[in-house]
Amino acid sequence: GEALLFENSDRLCEYMADQTNGVTLLSFSCGKDSIGAWLQMRRYFKRIIPVYLYIVPGLEFVEQSLRYYEDFFGTHIYRMPQPALYRWLNNYFFQPPERIAKIQELELIEFERDDVFDMVKAKESIPFRSVYTGLGVRAVDSLNRWASIKTHGPVNQNRCNFFPIYDWRKERLLEELVRAGVRLPVDYHIFGRTFDGTDWRFLKPLKETYPRDYAKIVEFFPLVEMELLRYEARQALYD
After folding, report:
1. What phi and psi, each to the nearest 5 degrees, are found at residue 30?
2. Is the dihedral of CA 128, 131, 137, 143 positive or negative?
3. CA-to-CA distance for 150 and 3, rounded, in angstroms?
4. What pTM did the predictor assign?
5. Strands 47-54, 23-27: parallel, antiparallel or unpaired by DSSP?
6. Can you tell me the distance from the alpha carbon of 181 to that of 72, in angstroms, rounded to the nearest whole number?
7. How many angstroms separate the CA atoms of 153 and 161, rounded?
């Protein structure tokens, strides 16, 4: 269909809540934009079903944050795998040779992010096309994003997504977080951003601060320690 345009994100949320009987999914990363999106959406929707996509299941520091947000918002958060997890395993990412046959036996079926939200809708007995997923996407994040939202609007009808805080600037976002009295996750203290990868930016602080979680990542990707060794070797060259 043609682009749906709105004068601001409040009008957008009113419209979406009206279209979906007040039910919505939320892609929740624990990041400040997704917390802002949740704060905005709870003004308009009577039921929000948040979904967190993990890289490795059950990391303690992640679970701590998820439990805090479950308490704060009074809602269960689904934990579902990131598509990258299955893709990495199928591509033997940081895997030793003796694991390859085992991974082949698993026959892991790859999927996309939208498939994950469809699985949650199926579990909740929600018709796929009638309920959309809110994403904490803001137009000012990048020029591409700004141009895309200006052209196509803050609703993606093909993928059943919408952007409940698309017009918020950073000041507005921070004001909303402070006013709600909600904390940011520990990620910002240890990484300066939300956890979303297995490169040294995440591995090094994890190894120092949450060694059990680091060990869990090594369980899934045994050769990931090469990433730290490579970085340390490179640092040694420049020191």
Report:
1. 75, -5
2. positive
3. 10
4. 0.94
5. parallel
6. 10
7. 11
